[in-house]
Amino acid sequence: MGEPPLKVALLGCGVVGGAVARLLSTQADDLAARIGRPLELAGIAVRRLARHLDGHPDLPVDPGLFTTDAHGLVAREDVDLVVEVIGGIEPARSLILAAMENGASVVSANKALLAEDGATLYAAADKQGVDLYYEAAVAGAIPILRPMRESLAGDRVRTVLGIVNGTTNYILTRMDESGAGFHEALEEAQALGYAEADPTADVEGFDAAAKAAILAGLAFHTRVTAADVHREGITEVTAADVVSARAMNSVVKLLAICELSEDGQSVGVRVHPAMIPRSHPLASVREAFNAVFVECEAAGELMFYGRGAGGGPTASAVLGDLVAAARHRVGGGRGPGESSYADLPVRPMGETVTRYHVSLDVADRPGVLAAVAQVFAGHDVSIETVRQRLLDGGEAGDAELVVVTHAATDAALSATVADLRRLDAVRGVTSLMRVEGE
Amino acid sequence: MGEPPLKVALLGCGVVGGAVARLLSTQADDLAARIGRPLELAGIAVRRLARHLDGHPDLPVDPGLFTTDAHGLVAREDVDLVVEVIGGIEPARSLILAAMENGASVVSANKALLAEDGATLYAAADKQGVDLYYEAAVAGAIPILRPMRESLAGDRVRTVLGIVNGTTNYILTRMDESGAGFHEALEEAQALGYAEADPTADVEGFDAAAKAAILAGLAFHTRVTAADVHREGITEVTAADVVSARAMNSVVKLLAICELSEDGQSVGVRVHPAMIPRSHPLASVREAFNAVFVECEAAGELMFYGRGAGGGPTASAVLGDLVAAARHRVGGGRGPGESSYADLPVRPMGETVTRYHVSLDVADRPGVLAAVAQVFAGHDVSIETVRQRLLDGGEAGDAELVVVTHAATDAALSATVADLRRLDAVRGVTSLMRVEGE
Question: Which residue in A113, B87, B283, B312 has the fewest CB atoms around it within 10 Å?
Answer without folding.
Answer: B87
